[in-house]
Write a structure and sequence with these properties.
The structure holds 2 protein chains of 2 kinds. Chain A is mainly alpha-helical. Helices cover 65% and strands 4% of the residues of chain A. Chain B is mainly alpha-helical. Chain B has one domain (56-268): MetI-like fold. Helices cover 76% and strands 0% of the residues of chain B. In chain B, helix 2 (55-95) crosses helix 8, helix 2 (55-95) runs parallel beside helix 11 (237-268) and helix 3 (101-110) crosses helix 5. The chains are: A mainly alpha, B mainly alpha. Chain A: Keywords: Cell membrane, Membrane, Transmembrane, Transmembrane helix, Transport.
Chain lengths: 320, 273
C-alpha cells in the first residue's frame, strides 16, 4: 500500500476511457462526493455562521453579532489558558514522540533477537482508545500514590504532583494568564507519548529499512564512524518521514480531546484544559453554541494552516 | 571482543527495561482488575493480588454488556460499509479518473483532518431532523461518511499498484465497469480489505466525540460507558480496570492476531491519527 513512499499519494494514468463510458464511474462516486460536500463543507459553513450569531442559550437565536464571540474568547482566561496549554502540549508531545520513536526504531532495527516481540510491545498502545489510555494513566500517575509510591521507595522525598500540579514554569504574565509550561501538561503528554511513540517507531522503521545497506557500508569502508553514518546518511534520508510525522502528530495534538477529557478534565485553574474540552463543555454543558462554534472554527483554522499546505505540496510532488 | 559482547548485553538490558516501562500500565490494569474489594486501595496498587478475584470483572461485565453490544452493532456495519464504498471510490479515482477527479479527491481528503468539533453542532441538528439522533444506525451513518476519505485514500493507493494493462485487456474482451471491479479488482484486494477493515474497526470502536454527543444512556457505545464508569466516584478501581480491559479487548485481539496488517494500516493511513 505504498507504505515506503515519502508521500501519501500516487499518481498514474487510469484506463483509456471513451466519452460514453464516463457516466457510470462518476455516478458511483457521486454519493460520497455529495456526502462529503454536505457533512464536511456544508456543516463547516454552518458552524462558521453560528459562530457569528448570539446563539448562547438553549433556545436558538440567530442575531448576527459579528466577531463578538471571538472577541470574548480571546479575552477569556480559560481560552487563553487553552492556547498556552495546546502550545505546550504540542511541543512536548511531538518532540518526545519523535525522539522516542526514532530511538526505539534504531534499537529494534539493530539485528536483535526477538525483534517482533519488542516491536509488538511498543506498538500495541496504538490499538487502544484514548479513553482507555486516559483512564489507566490517571491511575498510574495518581500523585498520592501511583508512580510516586515507587519513587518514594527509591528515596525521592518530594515526588512530582503530576497532573494535579498547578505550577507554571516560567511564570510570565501575558494577557490574563501566566504563560509558560504547566507542569500538569507533562503528565498528559507522557500518556500521549506512550500511546503514539510506537506509531513513530513504525514509521521510522519503514524508513530505516528503505535505506540501502550498501550506502551505509561504503561509508563505513571510507572510515566513517557509526555516529557519522547516522548523522550524515541515515538522518537526512529520514527527513521526509519526520516531516510527515510532525504534520500527523501536530494535527492530533491540535484536536486532542478524549485523552484529556478522560484523564484530567480542565484541571484546577484550567492547567490541563484544551480547546477541544472547552468546546465540548461550553456547547453541551453550558449551551453556549455560538461560543462553541467559535472555538471549533479556531481549531479548524489551526489544523488547516498545517494541513492545506501539506496536501497541496503532496499533490504537486506526486503529479510530477 | 570483550567490549562487543558487553554492548550487546547493555542493548538487551535497555530494550527489556523499555519494554517493561511500556507494559507498566498493562501491569496496573491486570493486577488491579483481579483484586478483591479489600485490596483496591491506593497504597497497595503495585502489589500483586492475593488471589484471582473475578468480582470486578463480573460487575464491569454486567454494567458494560449493553454498551459492548452497541459497539459491535456500530463498528461492524460501519466498517463493512466504509470499506465497500472506499473500494468503489478508490477504483474510480485510480482507474477511471476524469477531469477534476484529482481535485475532488484532494477536497475529500481534507475531510479526514478536520477537528470534528467543527461539524458537530449542525450534525446533531441534522441527525435530530432525520430522526437518527440517539440511534446506532445514526452513528453508523456518521462513521461511514467521515470514514470515507481515509478508506478512499487507502484503496486508491492500493489500486494504483494493480497494472492498468490488465484492466485494459479485460475491457477489450468486453468486460464493463462493474465486471472489472468484481472480477479483477475485488479478488486482488483481499489484503487491502483486511488492512482497511482493521483500521476502520479500530477507529470506530475507539471513537469518543461522536459517540458522546450523538447518543445517550442505553444507546451509548462502550467508550462512553467506560468514561462514565471511571468518572463515577462510587465505582471501585478493580471494576474500572476490568472495564477498561473489557473495552480494549476487541481491538487488542485484532492487533494480536493481525498485527502485520494493523501496522500496514497505520502506515498506509499515516496521514490520519
Amino acid at each position: 500500500m505504498g507504505e515506503c513512499s515519502s508521500g501519501p499519494f500516487h499518481w498514474r494514468e487510469g484506463i483509456m476511457i471513451h466519452r460514453s463510458e464516463r457516466a457510470i464511474p462518476i455516478l458511483m462516486l457521486l454519493p460520497s462526493v455529495l456526502a462529503i460536500a454536505i457533512f464536511v463543507y456544508g456543516f463547516i459553513s454552518w458552524t462558521g455562521y453560528v459562530s457569528f450569531t448570539d446563539w448562547n442559550t438553549l433556545v436558538r437565536t440567530s442575531h448576527f453579532i459579528g466577531f463578538d464571540n471571538y472577541k470574548f474568547l480571546f479575552q477569556d482566561f480559560r481560552f487563553q489558558s487553552d492556547l498556552r496549554n495546546t502550545l505546550a502540549f504540542t511541543v512536548l508531545f511531538i518532540g518526545l514522540t519523535m525522539l522516542c520513536g526514532l530511538f526505539l526504531a534504531r534499537m529494534v532495527d539493530s539485528k536483535i533477537k526477538g525483534e517482533a516481540l519488542f516491536r509488538n510491545i511498543f506498538i500495541f498502545p496504538m490499538a487502544l482508545s484514548f479513553i482507555v489510555t486516559g483512564v489507566v494513566w490517571q491511575w498510574v500517575l495518581n500523585p498520592t500514590t501511583g508512580i510516586n509510591l515507587a519513587l518514594k521507595s527509591m528515596g525521592v522525598s518530594n515526588p512530582p504532583k503530576w497532573f494535579t500540579s498547578t505550577l507554571i514554569i516560567p511564570k510570565l504574565h501575558l494577557g490574563l494568564i501566566d504563560f509558560g509550561l504547566p507542569v500538569a501538561i507533562i503528565a498528559v503528554a507522557l500518556a500521549a507519548v506512550w500511546q503514539m511513540s510506537g506509531f513513530a517507531m513504525a514509521m521510522y522503521l519503514a524508513g530505516l529499512r528503505s535505506i540501502s545497506e550498501d550506502l551505509r557500508e561504503s561509508a563505513r569502508i571510507d572510515g566513517a564512524t557509526e555516529k557519522q553514518v547516522f548523522r550524515k546518511i541515515v538522518l537526512p534520508q529520514l527527513k521526509p518521514i519526520s516531516m510527515s510525522l510532525i504534520i500527523i502528530l501536530a494535527h492530533i495534538s491540535l484536536k486532542i480531546f478524549d485523552l484529556i477529557y478522560a484523564m484530567t478534565g480542565p484541571g484546577a485553574m484550567f492547567v490541563t484544559d484544551v480547546p477541544g474540552v472547552y468546546m465540548f463543555e461550553t456547547t453541551f454543558r453550558g449551551n453556549h453554541y455560538a461560543q462553541g462554534s467559535g472555538i471549533a472554527m479556531i481549531m479548524l483554522l489551526l489544523v488547516s494552516l498545517l494541513i492545506v499546505p501539506y496536501l497541496i505540496s503532496s499533490f504537486r510532488k506526486e503529479r510530477e | 571482543m570483550q567490549t562487543r559482547s558487553s554492548t550487546v548485553f547493555f542493548k538487551y538490558l535497555l530494550l527489556i527495561a523499555l519494554a517493561a516501562l511500556f507494559l507498566v500500565p498493562v501491569y496496573v490494569i491486570i493486577v488491579t482488575s483481579f483484586k478483591g474489594l479489600d485490596e483496591v486501595t491506593l497504597d497497595k496498587m503495585w502489589h500483586l493480588p492475593k488471589g484471582l478475584d473475578f468480582a470486578g470483572y463480573k460487575e464491569a461485565y454486567d454494567k458494560l454488556l449493553p454498551n459492548l453490544r452497541n459497539s459491535f452493532l456500530l463498528a461492524i456495519p460501519a466498517t463493512a460499509l466504509s470499506a465497500l464504498m472506499g473500494a468503489m471510490n478508490g477504483y474510480v479515482l485510480s482507474k477511471w479518473s476524469f477531469r477534476g477527479s484529482n481535485l475532488l479527491f484532494a477536497l475529500m481528503l481534507f475531510g479526514m483532518f478536520i477537528p470534528y468539533q467543527s461539524v458537530l453542532i449542525p450534525l446533531i441538528q441534522f441527525m435530530q431532523q432525520i430522526e437518527l439522533y440517539n440511534s446506532i444506525p445514526g452513528l453508523v451513518l456518521v462513521h461511514v461518511i467521515y470514514g470515507l476519505p481515509i478508506c478512499t485514500l487507502m484503496f486508491r493507493n492500493f489500486y494504483v499498484g494493480i497494472p492498468t494493462e490488465m484492466l485494459e485487456a479485460a475491457k477489450i474482451d468486453g468486460t464493463g465497469f462493474f465486471g472489472i471491479f468484481r472480477r479483477i479488482m475485488l479478488p486482488l484486494s483481499i489484503s487491502g480489505f483486511v488492512v482497511v477493515c482493521i483500521w476502520q474497526f479500530t477507529s470506530v470502536w475507539n471513537e469518543f466525540l461522536f459517540a458522546v454527543t450523538l447518543t445517550t444512556q442505553k444507546k451509548q457505545p462502550i467508550m462512553v460507558a467506560l468514561q462514565n464508569l471511571s468518572g463515577s466516584q462510587i465505582v471501585h478501581w478493580n471494576v474500572q480496570m476490568a472495564g477498561a480491559l473489557l473495552a480494549a479487548l476487541p481491538t487488542l485481539l485484532v492487533y494480536a492476531f493481525l498485527s502485520r496488517y494493523f501496522v500496514r494500516g497505520l502506515l498506509a493511513g499515516s496521514i490520519k491519527g
